[in-house]
Design goal:
elongated; mainly alpha
């Protein structure tokens, strides 16, 4: 015989990550890391934020936005 009841057969799972109300507050940014990032950006990016001409890429013909047929 099967049992019929109003109870759930499995216990509910825990809360998803990130739902906690306890947060550490604002994150402190290390100024040395910001300066290093700016140096790298100046070296490898042009004024428009695109890859500079002096940077070699693996394959210049690669088109990641191309739709598969």
């Amino acid at each position: 015989m099967t049992q019929h009841s109003e109870k759930q057969s499995k216990t509910p799972k825990g809360k998803p990550s990130g739902t906690s109300g306890d947060t550490a507050g604002p994150i402190e940014v290390d100024s040395a890391k910001v300066k290093d990032t700016e140096k790298v950006e100046k070296k490898y990016l042009n004024e428009d934020g695109e890859t500079a001409d002096n940077v070699d890429t693996k394959n210049v013909n690669r088109n990641t936005d191309k739709e598969a047929k």
